[in-house]
Amino acid sequence: MSSSRARIRVSALGPDGGASRLNRTTQGRQRAAESEDAHHTFDELLHRGSSSIYDLNRALSDVARGSPAAAVSLFNRMARDKVAPDLCTYGIVIACCSRVGQLDLAFATVGRVIRTGWRVNPIFFNPLLKGLCVHDRTSEAMDIALRRMPDLGCTPNVFSYSILLKGLCDSNRNQQALDLLHIMADDSRGGCPPDVVSYNTVINGLLREGQVDKAYCLFDEMLDQGISPDVVTYNSIIATLSKSQAMDKATEALTRMVKNGFMPDCVTYNSFVHGYCSSGKPKEAIAILKKMRRGGVEPNVVTYTTLMDYLCKSGRSMEAREVFDSVVKRGHKPTIATYGTLLHGYAAEGSLVEMHHLLDVMHPNSWSVYL
Predict the structure, then answer these.
(1) In whole angstroms, how large is the CA radius of gyration of the chain?
(2) How far apart, in Å, are the Cα atoms of 213 and each of 37, 167, 201, 220?
């Protein structure tokens, strides 16, 4: 195997060494198997003829988790077999259509339900709102939630608003998300008070856009509203500061986190390891590893892989191999990302013998990402 060919094969794994691809494949197979079992269950219930709509809905929901298209097909069979659906059944179908981007069908199903005169609730609409936001139609979702739902006597709940907030933030409309959050918090409008998830969503959006000052102001506003931040809030702030290599500010945020009664977890420390490594400060990163252990937090594979990545990019793949060996010695199972990081390092240095040795010890299932 030539060094150039090796580099091409390793780089084809992607920035995470192919871990996400392998995970998606494994999870996809598991969901498919579960969906097939649920499909058989649904067939038996429908064939029985005396099954309750509750049991059919439960089986339909199980199918939908693995295969939305199959669930819609089964719904059509219910109609042919003259089994009357209820509001829950239609909700499952709307969620399926929304997930696969068949929003016209989702709208048609909503219209059919409204024409029947059923009283709808936010749970019924939320999958449609999510589908619209995911497919870059957040403005339509806003119109439904803020105008059409109230017209039907259906007040959006905090989950509805959180969907809208995420849709706005994902489309870089953070100011609109901030305005919507303030509408929620305005008691005089009789709205839906935001919760910690609502604030976390907008704080994350602001941080992604580099609007750190605004995010901090919103964080303070959150406290003024009597809403306690959680570990996710602090981790988001620390992760952003660490990515921008503002390690002093990240340390200040950590101090504030502990002062307010939240102990850092592995995610918190991993942000610091990443920040120090990207800042070219491996000694500080190693100090974080020691601090983790002293605090009773065991570094995970992500922690070690981050350190290995720094070492490999610095031309120190042999030291990265020592870290790799310590990962195995501590009982952690290296991921494809771990292997990919070390393979990249070897390839960059032209260490083909070491590459072959590492490939020999990789788990056979790991090779699926090469295929």
Answers:
(1) 25
(2) 51, 22, 16, 11
Structure tokens at 128: 């449609």
What pLDDT tens digit does each residue of the chain (371 aa) get? 444 434 334 333 444 444 444 444 444 445 555 667 778 888 888 778 778 899 898 999 999 888 899 999 989 888 888 888 899 999 999 999 999 989 999 999 999 999 988 999 999 999 999 999 999 999 999 999 999 999 999 999 999 999 999 999 999 999 999 999 998 887 555 568 999 999 999 999 999 988 988 998 999 899 888 898 999 999 999 999 999 899 998 999 999 999 989 999 999 999 999 999 999 998 999 999 899 989 899 999 999 999 999 999 999 999 999 999 988 888 888 888 999 999 999 999 998 888 888 888 775 555 444 44
Closest alpha carbon to 319 in 369, 285, 356: 285
The rounded distance, in Å, linking the Cα atoms of 367 and 25 is 13
Cite the beta strand spans of the chain per DSSP E. none
Largest Cα span, the chain: 72
Beta-carbon neighbour count of residue 183 at 10 Å?
14
Which tokens sit at 148? 């059409």
Local structure of 248: helix, strand or coil: helix
| Coil, helix or strand at residue 194 | coil
pTM, entire model: 0.75
The set of residues, in sequence order, having a beta carbon less than 8 Å from that of 158 and lying 6+ positions away, is 184, 192, 193, 194, 195, 197, 198
CB 110, CB 94: distance < 8 Å: yes
> Hey, is 79 helix, strand or coil?
helix
Residues 6+ apart with CB under 8 A from 340: 10, 13, 14, 16, 17, 18, 19
Kindly give, in sequence order, each residue whose CB lies less than 8 Å from that of residue 150, ignoring residues fewer than 6 positions away: 156
Q: From CA 39, how far away is CA 59, in angstroms rounded?
A: 7
Token output for 220:
């303070």
**Cα(104)–Cα(94) distance, integer angstroms:** 10
